[in-house]
Every structure is written in structure tokens, then in C-alpha cells.
Design brief:
Layout (H helix, E strand, L loop, with lengths): L5 H19 L5 H30 L3 H30 L2 H6 L2 H5 L3 H10 L4 E7 L2 E6 L3 H24 L4 H30 L7 E2 L4 H22 L8
Antiparallel strand pairs: 1-2, 2-3
Helix pairs in contact: 1-2, 1-9, 2-3, 3-6, 3-7, 7-8, 8-9
Length: about 240
């Protein structure tokens, strides 16, 4: 194992502990269920990342491995974005009113078309190419659909959490929103910035999946573990406005 694989392994172990904690919790409301599914999705991300880095350390990337890792990563990312927006809505608004209006179901409408375009056509992404420690994406003619979806869902999720953290409601509910905002906002804003900069910035505009440096990954693992652990305590706590 190299130093580059360690942060992925630590993040995966953090999420597996949280997953066990959430699965054993006696609280089985809608918020707890969304949190559990989201943890599973994020654990799969870390598993793919750890597996890819391990393979790279031993064999390096080739075309087939780059395609396998790239398509798996994006295929996981599409529903995860919908889960994040779902979670932000459940944290910030009354769940029953959302379900009555059918808003929760509408969140997942774009997922299946995007997955079909990704996995069965070359409209979304033509393929992936290895480049040193990076996997480069070769976007298809309809790649803007994925970019629009990602920016809209991440931006809406952050706005929902800001609203939930500021509105007058139970203290526990506001605290949960603030913790999730602390964990989600930096990642969401960075992701949105990279998409926008890819279109309007200078230099090399080829989209890519970068492997972050070791120090940044370690800080992110520590922050994510702390925020998710405290958020999990909030999910399982008493006095929730959404229980």
C-alpha cells in the first residue's frame, strides 16, 4: 500500500463505521433512510477510488482500466447528486408536504436518462484516457446535460441547507443543516467552479478526474468523518422536526 491509497482507505473505514451505526439505529424515519443510502453510495465511491489507486500503484493505468474506473465513477455520481439534494430537502422542509406534492419523486427523473446516455451511448461521454495520475474525460456532444444537472442539483442542495440553517425552527434541525452545509458546501462549490471554469477559464480545458494530493485528501477525510459522525448523531437524535 502506498501513501496515496491511505486516505481513501481511511475515508472508507469512516463510512463503514457510520454505516454500521446508522443501520443499527432504532430511528427509521425518512431522514435516516436517505442518510443510510447516501452512506452506501459514498462508500462505493471510496471503494472504487481505493481499488483504482491500488491498481495504479501495481500496474499503472491503461485504456481499459481508465474506462472502467471513469464510467463507474460517473455512474455512481449521477444518483448520488440526487440523493444529496433529497437529503437537503428532507433536512430543510417538512417531509410530508414534499411527498404530497410529488417533489421527491421528481428529483430522480433525470437519473435514468443520464445513466442510459452514459452506459449505452457515446452522447454523454466518449471515453476516458489515462494521463499520469489523472483520468481524462472525452466529453460527448450531450455532455452539457450532465454538467447542467450537476450544477443545478449541487447548487440547489447548498441553497436548501442555507435556508434550513437560518430559518426559525428547532435547534437540533438547524444544527444538522449547519453540519451538512459545512461538509457539502466546499465540495459543491469546487465542483461547480471546475465545471464553469472548464467553459470560461483559460489554459487546458480538457475535463479530467484528478487524484488529489495526499495532504488535501487527509484533511478532507478528517473533516468528512467529523461532520458525518456529528450529522449521524443528529439523525438518530430526539426531538427532530421531521421524525
Amino acid at each position: 500500500m502506498t501513501i496515496y491509497e491511505l486516505p481513501s482507505l481511511i475515508a472508507l473505514l469512516f463510512k463503514l463505521v457510520l454505516l454500521t451505526y446508522a443501520a443499527r439505529s432504532n430511528i427509521k424515519n425518512s431522514l435516516a433512510r436517505v442518510f443510510l443510502v447516501l452512506l452506501i453510495a459514498l462508500s462505493l465511491f471510496n471503494l472504487v477510488e481505493f481499488g483504482g489507486l491500488s491498481y495504479y500503484a501495481d500496474h499503472g493505468f491503461n485504456q481499459d482500466i481508465a474506462n472502467a474506473l471513469g464510467f463507474t465513477y460517473v455512474a455512481l455520481l449521477i444518483p448520488t447528486l440526487a440523493l444529496l439534494l433529497h437529503l437537503s430537502l428532507v433536512l430543510s422542509f417538512d417531509q410530508s408536504s414534499l411527498e404530497q406534492r410529488g417533489l421527491i419523486k421528481l428529483l430522480y427523473v433525470p437519473v435514468i436518462p443520464l445513466e442510459c446516455l452514459l452506459l449505452f451511448t457515446d452522447k454523454l461521454i466518449l471515453g476516458f484516457k489515462p494521463f499520469l495520475y489523472t483520468i481524462l474525460r472525452d466529453p460527448g456532444s450531450w455532455y452539457f446535460l450532465f454538467e447542467s444537472y450537476a450544477v443545478l442539483y449541487l447548487g440547489a442542495g447548498v441553497v436548501n441547507l442555507i435556508y434550513g440553517a437560518r430559518r426559525s425552527r428547532a435547534t437540533l434541525a438547524r444544527t444538522r443543516n449547519r453540519l451538512w452545509l459545512l461538509g457539502l458546501a466546499p465540495m459543491a462549490l469546487l465542483f461547480i467552479y471546475l465545471i464553469v471554469a472548464n467553459h470560461f477559464g483559460g489554459g487546458d480545458r480538457r475535463p479530467r478526474l484528478r487524484q488529489p494530493n495526499h495532504a488535501a485528501r487527509s484533511r478532507h477525510s478528517a473533516l468528512s468523518g467529523s461532520v458525518c459522525r456529528r450529522a449521524a448523531d443528529g439523525v438518530g437524535g430526539r426531538g427532530s422536526a421531521h421524525d
